[in-house]
Amino acid sequence: MIALTPALLGVAAGVLVGAGVQHTLIGLPRPRDRTHLAFGGVCVLAAAYVVTGAAILGAPDLSAYRLAVQLQIGVASALGAALAVFIDAFARLQRPRVVLGFVVAFLGAVMVLVTGGLGDAVAVAELPRARLPWGEVVSPKPPVARTGWLFLPRVLYLGLTVFLFYAVVML
Fold first, then answer.
1. Under 8 Å CB-to-CB from 14, ≥6 apart: which residues?
2. DSSP result, 133-150
3. What percent of the chain has pLDDT over 70?
4. Which of 3, 26, 35, 87 has a 20 to 30 Å separation from 96 between CA atoms?
5. Residue 60: which H helix or E strand, with range?
6. 61-70: per-residue pLDDT in tens?
7. 9, 54 contact by CB (below 8 A)
């Protein structure tokens, strides 16, 4: 039986990569308008996020799960920075300091969480397994210990959402 979840996630990642490549190729001859390049970067990073999600679901053991979670945190932080650049380019806000602040904050979150702030967040000795209705076995999200640094991505994405609403109002 084919594993349905990784196949669907692979299709979604493929569509995102295709859109990312297309928008990047459209944006390369237009250096003044960064919108296509920024959207291409968002699409490629979203595809990487989907792939790391598939790696988390299919993790065979706890070490592979932890590695996939660390990769997903890194990709999510880079995606947040790329979203800030895209919002600024699409809305033509011309706010380089705000965008630079988001980029630095998201990259700082990567450094803190991946290099040690995450700590031993996965608080189980082995991964639980779950059988989906169509017979596929996946690793659902295990219980996570509350570390002091896990608020950081939530605060950053909340700030990015506020910036998005600001951009919508300014359009």
1. 47
2. TTS-EE-PPPPB---TTT
3. 82
4. 26
5. none
6. 877 887 888 8
7. yes
